Amino acid sequence: MFPRIAELLMSDEVRRIHEASLEILENVGLEVANARARELYRRHGCRVNAENGRVTMPASIVEQFVQMVPPKFTFRARNPDFDRTIPDDAPLTMTASSAPNLIDPTTGEERRTTSEDIARIARLVNELPGIDIFSISVLADDAPPGQYSLTRFYTALKYCQKPVRGSGDPGNDSQSILQLAYTIAGSEAAYKDHPFITHHYCPVISPLKMDEHSTESLIFFAEQGLPSHPTVVPNAGLTSPMTLVGTLAQGNAEFLALAALTQMVRPETPTVYASLSTVADMRTGVYAPGGIECGMLNMAHAQMARYYNIPSCGYIGLTNSKLVDAQAGFEKALSCMAGLLAGMHVLQFVGLIESLLAFDFGMAVIDNEIALMLKRLARGMEMSQDNLALEEIAEIGPGGMFSTTDRTLRLMRTGAFLPEIADRQPRQSWASRGSDDAQTRALQRARKILSQSCEPLFSPEIEERIRGQFAGLVAGDLRPLETGA
Amino acid sequence: MFPRIAELLMSDEVRRIHEASLEILENVGLEVANARARELYRRHGCRVNAENGRVTMPASIVEQFVQMVPPKFTFRARNPDFDRTIPDDAPLTMTASSAPNLIDPTTGEERRTTSEDIARIARLVNELPGIDIFSISVLADDAPPGQYSLTRFYTALKYCQKPVRGSGDPGNDSQSILQLAYTIAGSEAAYKDHPFITHHYCPVISPLKMDEHSTESLIFFAEQGLPSHPTVVPNAGLTSPMTLVGTLAQGNAEFLALAALTQMVRPETPTVYASLSTVADMRTGVYAPGGIECGMLNMAHAQMARYYNIPSCGYIGLTNSKLVDAQAGFEKALSCMAGLLAGMHVLQFVGLIESLLAFDFGMAVIDNEIALMLKRLARGMEMSQDNLALEEIAEIGPGGMFSTTDRTLRLMRTGAFLPEIADRQPRQSWASRGSDDAQTRALQRARKILSQSCEPLFSPEIEERIRGQFAGLVAGDLRPLETGA
To answer: Where are the domains of chain B?
Structure first.
């Protein structure tokens, strides 16, 4: 990305974290609820305590399997032009996912979410050039029984041609998700040739417990050879030690256990080292993803990922704010920039406020602008003899002006990033346009996009086939937003 | 600060910038308005064109003098406990300076500034623990004739015991400033033993023009052996080329010319490599310090400063916003974090909005919180065997809770940074307290500090002596702010 990235750990400290994680896995181990996972671990040389389901893992076994993880991961899209591979295409940006609530773009009130909200967000993500991957941002309270995950993927894929990421349990309706994917692709073979859904799970409940269903999903998609990856989520002070390196060592151990499992299912299954390590605010015990420590932990996880030569992704750039205010701005931007400069390959931050509990359309538009600024920085200084402009400096000379040189005229729209939301007008002209804050402008931009009518990305034939397969599926229509006067 | 800092330039690119800057100084040179500066350059081997005042500088001369700059710089304070040296004490934070306007903390309206505003800001800076250096934030329209700079330093020093930085022209009233400093210190010798004012100038008007008065100040304070440093301020597209590396090469040349001059006056005069390199938004020609390019240019200047082994300071974390909104939050935080991770020693960003045109008390309080987050990150991961907490992880085991361990109880107020402005309450309890945004809370904090009565830091005897020396000097009283009902 650029010549030198920032690191919070010295190389011997990286090895100490690695060894501490191995020690945790060998001496403490994980309590594994899923029987197939226990059997996979046992068969490949780990010890399983039949009484309590505790799996302890010899260091040599963990290292042997983690080494099999490929160094690249591709997020595929319905439109292959939007396929993105890490680390090659890094830095990538992704929406933060699965909020139960949304700030209604018309009333400004918080409410629960529906499938139509997913359709609207899908459409917005599709239109915002700074966002690379759509991890389905909200839940869908209107999903019919048995069609919960299906409803979310259906509406997401219907309006977004970028890579879509999300979760669905095989015990529940993930067979339906695959059937949906095959229908959209034309056939199972066509889908498996270019699988445009990335499945995602949090199978470890910190500290050190592996669950039944998400673990089953991880195994299932690894068996199928379909793209999938887990995220580890320790929370310092509650579900991990109240120190950064203790939380890092435990979270890293949890990742290594999951990474080894995917390789035991099928060697060289691609995965991502994804982290959402946070701290609790121990004054009240609240979750504090907006804290600087979340940025620091993710920087360190990215460094561990580099040590293992595994692509990295971090939930970073989160905020505790309930509004899109200065707090949302500085909490997000501080840790996003930290993640970028620490060489994190995917920054997952777009759209959510309120500790991951609510999606806000204005926030997503602002996050798109932050994403474009991060990508500008990642392009670097663009050194060349021509860009040094020494002849021009000599020609203009002391006291001159560069505003009308050939170069300035040529680069005036590309030499510097031109924001759409950040206002740069002098106070008087800004005031004459209503003295709006950034969130007001961002919401206007979102409403404008959402007020335009928009065709689904599925053909009528595919739509008809989907409806034939899934009786009672939500309409998934995208009505233009009414913007009022 | 931490094991590895981020860099935007490869080491051979740093050398190319250095060589490009030398080429600019040798082939183009600077137009120098100040006769003493021209004579100093001439006497030390530079060529002076008597007709147009153009000074061209052989590369060997520039390199010879720049090498004399000491690797450290100390910002001294009236209270020596607040002395700060870079790079040792980095990262330091400083207020951004010399705005003509202020957002009134009572009315919320923008207005011109007075000496009482300086007193209030001095008091606030004194109380905010994240701010290390008070660069006098605003002008003083009520200053009596001939006492303009005197008025600003008098009110700043009267209420702030941290290092104070600012400008004052020797042709104008900087003799008065020194007299004031001697009086406060007790004698000229006592002051020169511990000079608690750092003088600051922008003697170069980009491109490549050195002015009369600020240049005179730089020479004057170097002669006196008093702490002083310049800042370079190219603006890509208007006063430097519309490319980042062209602007960097020109700005770096301007700094080298100034650094060499200080060493020609007096070898080993400490100075700082300070930059405020920005871009213009060429859609309208407006100044765009909130742009990501300002962060990038400052990162690169910090890297050049390291190449010369000179301490660095950057105007970074600026915003074009007219409000303390999400834009102010993300523009500031993105480039502050970029500066921090690029190893910049002083981040000068606190308090100003609106492209450096206005001070806002709420912004200063928010910036203090950003500063504390940056300083937390700079402390790093705090690796130790104890902090790895391996025994605790084993003891708690899978599925346990860390909330009541000895360590958690011991670290609950220090293990993670506890913000005062960033709100972390659940929506309901936040709403029950009025649904305030960050700026509302920050302004309340500022008003609370400013509503308390506060004694001046000068004794009545010193105050009396000052009044005896400077007839008609402003009162410099700090009336408690009325906070209403």
So the answer is: 73-241+268-379
Angle CA A193–A198–A199, to nearest 5 = 120
For residue B359, the Cα-to-chain-centroid distance in whole angstroms is 14
For B320, which of A374, A400, A424 is closest by C-beta distance? A424
3-state secondary structure of A422: coil
Contact A261, A310 (CB under 8 A): no
Q: Is the CB of B13 less than 8 angstroms away from the CB of A381?
A: yes
Q: Which of B274, B200, B273, B287 is nearest to B239 (CA)?
A: B287
Q: Across the interface, which of B7, B399, B416 has its CB nearest the CB of A3?
A: B7
CATH superfamily of A1-380+419-485: Trimethylamine methyltransferase-like (3.20.20.480)
Closest CA to A244 of A208, A205, A275, A278: A278
> Residue A5: in which H helix or E strand, if any?
none
The answer, for A208 touching chain B at a CB cutoff of 8 Å, is yes
State the smallest CA–CA distance between residue B371 and chain A in angstroms: 11
In whole angstroms, give the CA distance from residue B187 to residue B465: 12
Measured in residues, chain B has a length of: 485
Q: Cβ of A246 and B427 within 8 Å?
A: no
Give the integer Cα–Cα distance in Å for A170 and A448: 38
pTM: 0.98
The CB-side HSE value for A315 (13 A sphere, CA atoms) comes to: 28
CA-to-CA dists, residue B452 to A96, A114, B478, angstroms = 44, 51, 10
Give the residue among A360, A358, A354 at the shortest CA–CA distance from A331. Answer: A354
Cis peptide before B234, with omega less than 30 degrees from 0? no
Comparing CA positions, the residue from A269, A302, A232, A263 lying closest to residue A90 is A302
B50 touches chain A (CB under 8 A): no
Q: How far is B446 from chain A (nearest CA, A)?
A: 16
Can you tell me the ipTM of this complex? 0.97
Inspect the interface and report whether the beta carbons of A300 and B330 lie closer than 8 Å. no
Alpha-carbon distances, residue B282 vs A410, A430, B330 (angstroms) = 11, 17, 22
Pull the structure tokens for residue B307.
């190449």
Out of B209, B323, B394, whose CB is closest to A437?
B323
Query: Hunting for tokens 């996003």 — which residue is that?
Result: A336
Test the B interface: residue of A27, A340, A366, A381 with most B CBs within 10 Å: A381
3 state SS of B468: helix
Q: Which residues of A339-365 are buried (b: 16+ CB within 10 A; e: fewer)?
A: bbbbbbbbbbbbbbbbbbbbbbbbbbb
Q: Alpha carbon of B445 to those of A284, A292, B313, B382, B420: distances in Å? A: 21, 21, 28, 31, 9
Give the mutation candidate from A352, A368, A393 for the B interface (greatest B CB count, under 10 A). Answer: A393
Per-residue pLDDT of chain B (485 residues; tens, 9 = 90+): 678 999 999 999 999 999 999 999 999 999 999 999 999 999 999 999 999 999 999 999 999 999 999 999 999 999 999 999 999 999 999 999 999 999 999 999 999 999 999 999 999 999 999 999 999 999 999 999 999 999 999 999 999 999 999 987 656 677 899 999 999 999 999 999 999 999 999 999 999 999 999 999 999 999 999 999 999 999 999 999 999 999 999 999 999 999 999 999 999 999 999 999 999 999 999 999 999 999 999 999 999 999 999 999 999 999 999 999 999 999 999 999 999 999 999 999 999 999 999 999 999 999 999 999 999 999 999 999 999 999 999 999 999 999 999 999 999 999 899 999 999 999 999 999 999 999 999 999 999 999 999 999 999 999 999 999 999 999 999 999 987 64
Number of other residues whose CB lies within 10 A of the CB of residue B403 = 15
Domain B73-241+268-379 classified CATH 3.40.50.1240? no
